[in-house]
Amino acid sequence: MPVPSLEDFMSRAYTMELEATERYAQFAEQLDTHNNREVAQLFRKLSEIEALHAKRILEEMGWPSVPALPPAFAWSGAEAPETAPFDSLHYLMQPYHALEIALRCELEAVKYFDDIAAGAAPQRVRAAAKEMADEEREHVALIKQWMKKVPRPAAGWDEDPDPPRIAG
Amino acid sequence: MNAPFAAAALQPKDFKSGYKPVWCPGCGDYSVLTGVTKALAMLELRPENVAVVSGIGCSSRIPAYTNCYGFHGVHGRALPAATGLKVARPELTVLVASGDGDGYSIGGNHFLHACRRNVDLTYIVMDNHVYGMTKGQPSPTTEPDWRSKLAPGGTGLREFHPLVIALASGANFIARGFSGDPNGLAALIAEAVRHPGFYFLEVLSPCVTFRPEQRGWKEAVHPAPVAPTDDPGRAARRLMTDDGFNIGVLYKGSRAPFTGMAAAPTDSPEDLECLFRL
Amino acid sequence: MKPTPSVSVALAGSGGAGVMTAGNMLLEAAALAGYYGLMTRTSGPQIRGGEAAAMLRVATFPTDGQDDRFQVLAAIDWQNVGRFAAELPLAPGSIIVGDPAQGEPPEVFTRSGARYLPVPLKQLAGQLAGAWPNMVALGVLAGLIGLSFESVEAAAKKAMKKGLEAGIAAARLGFSQASSLEGFSLEKPPSSSARWLITGNEAAGYGALRGGVRFVAAYPITPATELLEWLAPALAKVGGTLVQAEDELASINMALGASYGGVPSLTATSGPGLALMIEALGLGVAAEVPVVVVDVMRTGPSTGIATKSEQADLNIALYGMHGDAPHIVVAPNSLADCVAATAWAVGLAESLQVPAIVLSDQYFGQARAVVDAPVLEKQSLERLKAEGAEGYKRYALTESGISPMAIPGTRGTAYTADGLEHNEGGTPSSQTADHLAQMDKRARKVSQLDPGDAWASIEGEGETAVLTFGSCTGPVREAMARNGKGVKLVSLRLLSPAQPERLRKALEGVKRVLVVEQNHSGQFLRYLRSEYQLPGEVRSLRRPGPLPFRPEEVRQELLNWEETA
Ligand SMILES: Cc1ncc(C[n+]2csc(CCOP(=O)(O)OP(=O)(O)O)c2C)c(N)n1
Ligand code: SF4
Q1: DSSP string spanning B81-133?
Q2: Model ipTM?
Q3: Residue C439: inside a domain
Q4: Tens of pLDDT along C348-369?
Q5: Which of C240, C254, C428 sits opposite B83 (nearest CB)?
Q6: What's the structural domain count of chain C?
Q7: What is the pLDDT of residues A124-140, one digit of tens each?
Q8: What is the mean pLDDT of residues C249-262?
Q9: Helix (H, G, I), strand (E, B), or coil: what is residue C205?
Q10: Is C320 helix (H, G, I), strand (E, B) or coil?
Q11: Domain span at residue C403?
């Protein structure tokens, strides 16, 4: 989808951050419900980081709230590039897995902004996209560092000796 | 249409209840819930004017996760309950949620008749080709060779084809969605609510616990290659040869909905005594 | 012959002979002449063309029970009519009217000692263009029981759309034939009062509307179908709706859905349908959604005898549900009471937010009777609705157990009605404390019900009491009337929740209890034994359907007991 203006670009960027914020928050909630507090906490942190990014866009643009995207707007994929799909989770997942998800999302975001920066959008848009892409690259680096600090899951991390418990 | 809702009166999160889903992390039903809340926000509805009706199953847990009016009934009977509600209260927006066991097996008869009755309902079936809630038995849409405790050698039975059956039963609107695309789902659900009459939306919604291989569905799905038809004959041919992963609206008829609505009263009950009086 | 207060006549014949049409006109004629009466019907298993009989009773007093014997059996033809012998008991003084061209009456009838009076019905009708033998038979019957011809003419005018003149002429021919025969005569009719001509099914339908029902979903089943067929156009007139569902599972769930939406709802069925509805009735109990099911009982189990009556669904109505499921069971104890009992059941369901089952039966449902116009007092049994409120809790633990119910569309009170156990707020809960608190609440709201005097009909005084319910009440009443004093009737209308304290009071001073019911296993007796203390000796008078109890059977039972006591 062509990006006609800086406003349009920034509201996309904002929406990306907002959806990522919400998705990570949902993930945190799901894992809380399933007693995986450690990963829940991590997702909560990721959610907070994305929320900060979203807030910064509002501040930079001096927007009280974000202007709506045109009704016909659609992401090229199923959801915004930085939004992790619902099926990424597993109740026994470990922090490393969560960071893998975040890494994938950041890489998607880099690619999204790089494409705009290299595309046919107005100069101002391309410059802003370049800036965003660089910022996302920094996040990629941060997450990679973070991943080094958490243990790698051993084989069989998803094994559960008990059968599922639900009943209806 | 998957724009954000900056201008909408209510945000999708305003349609969520504080009650936390018990679904397994990764379950496709989370995404359907997101699709529902986004659609309701998109439609600028108020939660109190929406009712979400369901049967029993993991998927049927959805009503309590919204802050709309909810009716979590008994296994297989969501459609009749929703029919009663909609006929009695036509001004409400009524969404119905089922699973493939709930909707196609125990509730199969209601499915046929809801299709032909054409009451203005949005019927969302979260199809995971398995009975999730009772821990992994084959459902009508399960592949014949899928092995499980209850059918160790597979069922050996041909799958039920809900879309074809809906068409044959007179459904007026038939679509397929995928839980991996909550925005696409939101758009389909919004369209379904706007459409007057029965709208059947089959949603491929993986059960990551009993059918983990369904995580691979995201590679298999693809948008329907052609625009929806309004010719049932053509639709039948398409649906019969469909690979099961075509996403989008597949059939669009134009039958008028059934309202069953009473006219304004002309008599009080007491007036009817003249029927018996000597 | 000495005038009597009651005469019973039957008109039989093959399908196409018009016995029901003629029977209805005779009942109407009797009603117009100022008498009470009723008509029941019986028929063979064929869909069309089979044998059928209209069974009428004309009386100077209100009655919805059949008498011991028929004074007149008239038949247009005798094909297979012998099958009805058990349902058409005759006596030595009875008259059999038949067309000699159709052969002799079957031996099963003549061996009663009844007199045979041949009347050439077909030949008489043949004298008039467009006339039918059933109209000749109508005239004969009216003449034999001493009705005026004017009343027959008036009834024909009301009923016949075509062939009226020929019909009246035929009836007149029959009437004049009867004048040469020695028949019966009725005592003078009682002074006139406001009366209705109504079937039990119509009465239940009307009661439902008076109770406030505006949504009905149902699946056809004998003998409840006429109730639905009456309701369909009637509902349309009062701003309601009837949906024909695909099965009973759908009907009860549709009714629950509509009621959840705030519209008082009902479904009607018979035993096999009630069996299919049981699961959803449990939902109604758990989710506290009011709904009314009228069970027009027929002979069971399974398809049984679909067109005949029995009181054998008592167990399933009282105890059929899974889980502990307090609910309401009401039984009308006269045909006319189908109005009040059904209206009451709707009120109870609505005010207590609980399913209510009305146990009518085929006998009431399909009988048409002249009854004193029922007087329905306005009942103030309404659903307690929630106003938009802060911190709304759908299943709040109130003292009465009744919590305000929010109606979809009301802002600020959205909740999910749930068959899953829940807490006060309606959130699913598997906590012991929530289960106990909600069970207590659901039991409390039903048990605290104060039915006033409506719980039973109590009549007479004596050391012998008859306990019964439903359509057995008529024959018991009549037996008591014949027996004179010494017997007390307690006919229960509210079967669930049980009223042990009220019955204890009602039975003070009683030394013997006779329990009368129409089923094989004594379901009512077992229920009484488990829920109540019965004083003194207890006897059971019971038999399965389809034959109704006759007053004399009950009277004999009481007499024999008193003699041996
Ligand atoms: C009358 C009845 N029979 C059986 C059950 C048990 N039961 C609960 S959910 C379910 C099947 C659920 O499968 P599906 O509808 O596909 O939903 P899912 O859990 O996969 O979302 C069954 C058999 C029940 N609750 N009620
Ligand atoms: S069992 Fe399957 S369908 Fe049920 S919540 Fe878990 S993943 Fe979803």
Answers
A1: HHHHHHHH-TTSEEEEEEEHHIIIIITHHHHHHHHHH-BS-EEEEEE-SSBTT
A2: 0.90
A3: yes
A4: 999 999 999 999 999 999 999 9
A5: C254
A6: 4
A7: 999 999 999 999 999 99
A8: 98
A9: helix
A10: coil
A11: 384-449
